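quick q for whoever's on today - can somebody do inverse folding on this one?? i tried earlier but teh output was garbage lol. tokens:
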């Protein structure tokens, strides 16, 4: 009897002492319509449920006390309600979710007010405004908040935070999952014509996205490893602004301003202005220069059904083209020459101007149908004069040189128009997109070259480098190496695509199916005659996402890519004609949102196969050859966001086995691709003190590891390297002081390279101190 009483006491006493209550309710939209499948839960507990078809929910075993009740669903703003639970009393309440403008606009027209290392939405990956965790493909994002904390200025400062992306050279030239990406960048999901020699300045962008794998099903000819997309800062409905000045190593000075707000009282007309400037000597001889950008943006929202946005960006770089550090022929000790050594001469120049304008229009026709249109005009001009190596050694320490003068013009125009229809058939939700796009790119150049001492260009002696002894006026310019007074475009290409995409949702299952028919036309001027070549491709895309829990999704995808070899590369004098590059990718992984959506994580496993790759002929630097096949297999992990209100974090790791599988050169088969590290890792963490005597202070710390890499020269391998960075911040009233120290251990390293006469050293230890005022 005593044992029975004791047993009853053990069961009854905790139940009485810790009485549990229930919370029930209904979730609706602003029109009173029931919202099924909404995630409802108690913050910082495991108590959660999704709403039924009629929008109702019940949460059981809720302890007494004050709690935060959270409700969120795709296309609606997250609701956070403070509730007071009393002992023995059940709660019944109603929740109304407001529509999320980010989902509604589909093309990004209004700015993002949230400030975090984590970005939950993507517009470019599906063109329909979708949660990243619901997209069956790996998508990496670096937000403006992380860029600000790291005092980043160029794209290379940003991609170090992305798994599987590395520098191929110091130019606008990166490797994504092992594949070189020189001409596949987007702005707001539209194709650009950025100059290959200067990296984009990133202070005017809201975020930088990397859509991993071939994205040709949406963006036509795209890089097989991944596509980099820049999202410009859009106007906000609240008046705010910031101004920053900074100074640092190598006589570097920067200033930028960001101002936004409404132009009318009804907030239907909004503006934003970003502008920035930098002057720097850099750590390289005969290098440095200045750059600046001006980026105004206007959004007009006359009604909840019609939205317009216009972005204009002018970006200028006045610098010198750095062709890398020369080294002794055949010497694997790259440190025998100093990292500042350059073959550039006084008087060399690279002046590059980029001007582009984006127009976006989103029209809601009915409750279930909308129309979206975007247009991008991009103009790029550059004026180049450079001394560089000619790819030949006279002796192991003396290099033959060449001098090049070139004017380049890159123009691109592209437009995309598509309809999006959202409707239900029973319990199945559909988002169908049908559209077409058209792009036109023009490349033109005037050029002349002089090579070697026979044409007046002095050799370069590594043991006794001479600067200022070169006079282009005395050079003989070879007519065979020069292109003069072109009045017709050197190359033109036109791409027309028709595509259809279905995003289907049934309970916990999401399916994405897409198909694109692409027509590509190339036009080249050949000895005064116009030569035309046409190509086409049918490009499928298929993906599945399954909701394992309310916060974790499992996904898998298959997609194909297509890249025509344009006539600029395809010309006979370059070794052409060549077959188009074709690719496909299989990928699977897990995506999750944690800590009430503040932290996101993605793990992915992929297999990419690419055929018909162009590489430089090792026996002739002016010609190309076509490699049969390459494969990239790997694993990636990324985590971004806030662990606590004090701690922000981004971390990444990538294993990438990118090897040559088919080649006319049997010695290449099985080798790791050029400038494709097998291992990469990085992290950055920031901790803010929000209370106590250290309130206002913050500290940041991070590291980056890049494994060893092959180059175009088979026996030249670049060593791996590990860099450490740190930062300290202090915020008081509207001011913020920040100090960043990069490469703390003063590591000597190389971010990429071609051969012995051209490797690209990374910056030694350097610092930046900045002051920001918010108003």
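ok took a stab at it. sequence:
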């Amino acid at each position: 009897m005593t044992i029975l009483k004791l047993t009853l006491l053990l069961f009854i006493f905790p139940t009485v002492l810790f009485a549990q209550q229930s919370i029930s309710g209904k979730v609706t939209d602003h029109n009173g319509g029931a919202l099924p499948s909404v995630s409802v839960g108690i913050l910082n507990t495991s108590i959660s449920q999704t709403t039924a078809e009629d929008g109702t929910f019940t949460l059981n075993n809720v302890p007494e006390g004050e709690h935060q009740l959270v409700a969120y669903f795709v296309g609606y703003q997250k609701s956070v309600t403070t509730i007071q639970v009393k002992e023995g009393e059940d709660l019944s309440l109603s929740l109304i979710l407001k529509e999320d403008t980010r989902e509604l606009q589909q093309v990004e027209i209004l700015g993002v007010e949230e400030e975090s290392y984590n970005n939950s939405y993507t517009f470019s990956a599906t063109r329909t405004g979708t949660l990243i965790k619901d997209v069956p493909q790996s998508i990496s994002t670096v937000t403006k908040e992380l860029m600000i904390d790291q005092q980043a200025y160029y794209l290379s400062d940003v991609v170090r935070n992305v798994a599987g992306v590395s520098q191929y050279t110091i130019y606008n030239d990166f490797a994504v999952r092992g594949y070189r990406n020189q001409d596949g960048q987007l702005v707001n999901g539209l194709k650009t014509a950025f100059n290959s020699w200067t990296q984009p300045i990133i202070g005017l962008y809201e975020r930088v996205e990397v859509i991993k794998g071939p994205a040709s099903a949406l963006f036509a000819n795209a890089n097989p490893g991944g596509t980099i997309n820049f999202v410009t800062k859009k106007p906000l409905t609240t008046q705010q602004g910031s101004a920053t000045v900074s100074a640092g190593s190598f006589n570097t000075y920067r200033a930028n301003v960001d101002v936004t707000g409404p132009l009318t009282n009804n907030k239907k007309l909004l503006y934003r202005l970003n502008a920035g400037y930098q002057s720097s000597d850099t750590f390289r001889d005969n290098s440095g220069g200045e750059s600046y950008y001006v980026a105004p943006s206007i959004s007009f929202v006359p009604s909840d059904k019609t939205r317009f946005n216009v972005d204009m960006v002018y970006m200028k770089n006045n610098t010198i083209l750095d062709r890398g550090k020369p080294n002794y022929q055949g010497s694997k000790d790259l440190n025998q020459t100093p990292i500042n050594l350059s073959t550039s001469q006084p008087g060399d120049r690279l002046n590059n101007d980029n001007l582009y304008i984006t127009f976006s229009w989103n029209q809601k026709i009915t409750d279930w149908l909308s129309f979206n249109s975007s247009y991008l005009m991009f103009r790029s001009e550059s004026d180049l004069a450079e001394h560089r190596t000619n790819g030949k050694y006279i002796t192991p320490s003396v290099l033959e040189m060449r001098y090049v003068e070139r004017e380049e013009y890159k123009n691109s125009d592209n437009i995309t128009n598509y309809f999006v229809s959202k409707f239900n058939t029973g319990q199945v939700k559909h988002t169908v997109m049908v559209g077409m796009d058209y792009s036109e790119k023009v490349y033109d150049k005037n050029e002349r070259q002089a090579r070697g001492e026979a044409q007046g260009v002095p050799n370069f002696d590594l043991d006794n480098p001479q600067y200022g002894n070169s006079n282009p006026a005395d050079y003989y310019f070879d007519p065979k190496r020069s292109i003069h007074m072109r009045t017709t475009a050197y190359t033109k290409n036109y791409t027309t695509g028709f595509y259809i995409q279905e995003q289907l949702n049934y309970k916990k299952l999401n399916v994405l199916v897409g198909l694109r028919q692409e027509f590509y036309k190339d036009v080249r001027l050949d000895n005064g005659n116009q030569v035309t070549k046409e190509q086409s491709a049918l490009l499928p895309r298929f993906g599945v996402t399954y909701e394992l829990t309310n916060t974790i999704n499992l996904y898998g995808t298959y997609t194909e890519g297509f890249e025509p070899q344009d006539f600029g590369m395809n010309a006979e004098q370059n070794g052409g004609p060549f077959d188009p590059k074709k690719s496909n990718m299989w990928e699977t992984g897990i995506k999750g949102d944690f800590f009430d959506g503040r932290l996101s994580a993605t793990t992915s496993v992929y297999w990419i196969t690419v055929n018909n790759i162009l590489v430089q002929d090792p026996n002739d630097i002016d010609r190309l050859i076509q490699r049969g096949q390459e494969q990239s297999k790997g694993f990636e992990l990324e985590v971004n966001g806030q662990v606590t209100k004090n701690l922000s974090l981004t971390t990444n790791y990538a294993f990438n086995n990118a090897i040559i599988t088919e080649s006319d050169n049997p010695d290449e088969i099985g080798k790791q691709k050029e400038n494709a590290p097998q291992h990469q890792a990085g992290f950055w963490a920031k901790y803010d003190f929000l209370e106590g005597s250290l309130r206002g202070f913050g500290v940041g710390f991070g590291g980056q590891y890049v494994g060893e890499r092959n180059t175009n020269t088979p026996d030249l391998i670049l060593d791996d390297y590990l860099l450490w960075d740190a930062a300290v911040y202090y915020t008081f009233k509207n001011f913020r002081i920040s100090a960043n120290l990069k490469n703390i251990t003063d590591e000597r390293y190389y971010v990429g390279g071609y051969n012995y006469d051209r490797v690209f050293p990374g910056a030694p230890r350097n610092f930046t101190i900045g002051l920001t005022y918010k108003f």
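fwiw The first strand starts at residue 21 and ends at 28. also The CA atoms of residues 636 and 654 lie 4 Å apart. so keep that in mind when u check it
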